[in-house]
Amino acid sequence: MSERLAPALIALDWGTSSLRAYLLGEGGRVLAAQSRPWGIQHTPDGDFARAYEELVGDWCRQWPGLPALACGMIGSRQGWREVPYALCPATSSNLVDGLLAVDTAYGPLYLLPGVLDASALPNVIRGEETQVFGALQLAPELREHALLVLPGTHSKWVSVRDGAISHFTTHMTGELFAVLRDHSILGRPAREQGIERSDEAFCRGLDAARQSAAEGVSGRLFSTRSLLLTERLTAGESLDYLSGLLIGEELRSVLASLEEHACPPLVLIGDAHLCERYRLALGRFGVTAVRTLENAGVTGLWHLACAAALVTATPTAVSRSAMHV
Amino acid sequence: MSERLAPALIALDWGTSSLRAYLLGEGGRVLAAQSRPWGIQHTPDGDFARAYEELVGDWCRQWPGLPALACGMIGSRQGWREVPYALCPATSSNLVDGLLAVDTAYGPLYLLPGVLDASALPNVIRGEETQVFGALQLAPELREHALLVLPGTHSKWVSVRDGAISHFTTHMTGELFAVLRDHSILGRPAREQGIERSDEAFCRGLDAARQSAAEGVSGRLFSTRSLLLTERLTAGESLDYLSGLLIGEELRSVLASLEEHACPPLVLIGDAHLCERYRLALGRFGVTAVRTLENAGVTGLWHLACAAALVTATPTAVSRSAMHV
Fold first, then answer.
1. Listed residue (B182, B285, B186, B176) closest to B237, CA to CA
2. Spatial separation of the C-alpha atoms in residues A227 and A314, rounded to whole Å
């Protein structure tokens, strides 16, 4: 590592299932990265201090005094120290105001708060807020009004207004798919006979969800089985069909909630494969003006470290070529 | 058993998880009944002949030559002999025309076909069709037009027109609840801390589903967790809340499909506790003209045995007092 690329920050994304660590240099450039399957539910012996030491101890000893910042479930009640949620509408300043530190052998590790949307049916995020503020750095034109989609086990749809997280919803699409695949009658044929990827079956599921209109997929989930019984779907294709039904229901629901308003600029953030699947699905629903942003998480950690004066703000090094429209 | 009550029929409801046998006398009166957890997925050694012998062999030996009739999954591909589905619109004559027999040590056991609704998204029933025709015997005024609800693992909503099953849908509400309770993050608090029955939490879930309007519960399932995190629901109550969300989504979906038409007379058939729960739920959706019918399954087996001339038709002995409005 050359002298010119002096490390400036240790940044952690410490979630439920994984722990990712980044050594960031000037402008948020990634100098080194490593990860372990040590999310807070899987941290060996639940010993966060030791996991931290094992993952980033070398960096801390090599560059003493580096500031350290973490986002994600590590700040939850089940994490290292509970950091109270910031409330919607939440700005990056609100997040920074809520920082709390834990003591480590190498100095403080600052933990970011999550965000609470205290609607009648409340919603919470921990980690996604950092990706959202990263996205707003990468694409400042989104600050006024945008809808950011973070697909996953629990998909989050985050509305941004005037630079703040104004509202968000959670769709348990990934978890629903997993429990139905692994534990319901719908997953049994593929469990027994194996999986055969099929974009066509995925699109048939999407269409069935879209055509359900206000009824939703409640009465159509079982078609994953009845199409098989009537030999119009194979066991191998059935999981892609089910995935289409469930992602389709998520999109149908969100688009129904927007119906009377114009759809704000839509941005996908997250795992590239999953984002591509959602982009395909959105297209099937007639929504084609969708961009995908990469590196939003790291960018967000750097931006928030700057806002907290843990590091000196400089123009972000993540070029706009990371943004695909 | 007195001479006057001579047995006339051995009637079986042989489903996926259980096997119920009835010894029926004149008019369909139940002279004796017994059941085993020997549904076709749990029949010891998969030996249907031996299970039949063990359950009803005594009756067969005591009254040789009794006709025997079965409905349910025993007629499926995984059952004793596959009986092809009757097609919608399906009358009781269509069912009888499709009877197939298996040979037993005591003579033929006739197996009823299920029904296939060959819509673009097909649907199938095996066993429920018999309950439906039983219900039409118990309440003949339903024959012209009615919607019969059979709640359960897979709830069936069966439309009847002019004495025939014209259409039906499946809602996997019971199975969805079970997999989410046992395998998802939503069930974990109750799994760890125990269940506390709460009609109030059930109604809150119903209301959340009803108020979701065209959006459906996709973005509201997670409230089972977020209400807990914000201490507005207890772990013990959370499963009744989830049950309300899921049953509510089923009702919301069905009522959305009826919106432009008047709701036909609505009848609940099945397990008394579950029917009561659906009655409560329907009331929460403003649907109060709902009746519950008991003994529809046995009545249906008797009626179809008469239609098949396996027994001599006489007025059904199940009094109309079995019908609660």
1. B186
2. 57
DSSP state of B215: G
Rounded-to-integer distance, Cα B293 and Cα B316, Å: 15
Could you give the residue ranges of the DSSP H alpha helices within B171-213? 173-183, 188-193, 199-211
**Which chain A residues are within 8 Å of B121, Cβ to Cβ?**
208, 220, 223, 226-227
In sequence order, what are the beta bridge partners of A7? A25
| Contact yes or no for A250/A155 (Cβ under 8 A) | yes
From chain A, pick out residues whose CB is under 8 angstroms from the CB of B213. Answer: 214, 256
Antiparallel, parallel or unpaired: β A266-269 and A164-171: unpaired
Rounded-to-integer distance, Cα A108 and Cα A121, Å = 35
Q: A179, B179: Cβ pair inside 8 Å? A: yes
DSSP summary character for residue B34: E
CB interface of B with A, residues 209-248, below 8 Å: 213-216, 218-223, 226-227, 229-230, 232
- pLDDT of B124 > 90? The answer is yes
- DSSP-based three-state secondary structure for A290: strand
User: Which amino acid belongs to residue A118?
Assistant: A
Please, which pLDDT band fits residue A159 given cuts at 50, 70 and 90? very high
Which tens digits make up the pLDDT trace of B273-295? 999 999 999 999 999 999 999 99
- Please answer whether residues B6 and B59 qualify as being in contact, where contact means their C-beta atoms are separated by less than 8 angstroms: no
Site of tokens 């997999």: B179
How high is the pLDDT of residue A312?
84
For residue B194, what pLDDT band results from cuts at 50, 70 and 90?
very high
Model pTM? 0.92
pLDDT band per the 50, 70, 90 thresholds, residue B312: confident
Locate A105 and state its tokens.
């052998």
Q: Are the beta carbons of A84 and A98 closer than 8 angstroms?
A: yes
Q: Please name the residues in contact with A173: beta carbons below 8 A apart, sequence gap of 6 or more.
A: A151, A154, A155, A246, A247, A249, A250, B218
CA distances from B103 to A45, B196, B321 (A): 62, 50, 38
Q: Which helix (H) or strand (E) holds B229?
A: helix B223-229
